[in-house]
Amino acid sequence: MTTLPTLAPLAGLATALRSNAAPAPQVSLLTFETHLRRPVFADFALACAAARAISDPCHWGESRLLAWVLLPDHWQGLVETRDEAARSRLVQNLKSSTTRSVRDWDASIEPLWARATQERRLRRDDDRAEAARYLVLEPVRCGLTATLDDYTFWNSEWV
Fold first, then answer.
1. Tell me: the pLDDT tens digits for 19-28?
2. What is the pTM of this model?
3. Which CATH class is domain 24-156?
């Protein structure tokens, strides 16, 4: 009687299958400051123009805007992107589209945004809804308004 050799377990198969799966989306808090921190968006018409561009779904591609707030001298958004390349495209698209929209109202504003973009990535176990609530309450913390209901330039999936 002959015995068949035992087969080695396919330990590497599960790892190979996992590596082919699409990476989990990354959630980041992005901040764009205006050039020289000028309070450009204290002007209601300019803030409206920027908010329309920010809210336009055509600028988001494969990314998702979870929450955002536009303050006089900066914009902050909680965004979900597939990867670093998608995040980079998103930043470029948002900065250029908001610049075009604002310059339609006031052509003298050049440049609108500072070159740098600040990014803080959320950990997988961070509560996205809590991060969004914290983000959109920035106008209240800054003393721009007494309540969030009194502030116009924000949105969130959770609030």
1. 555 667 899 9
2. 0.83
3. alpha beta
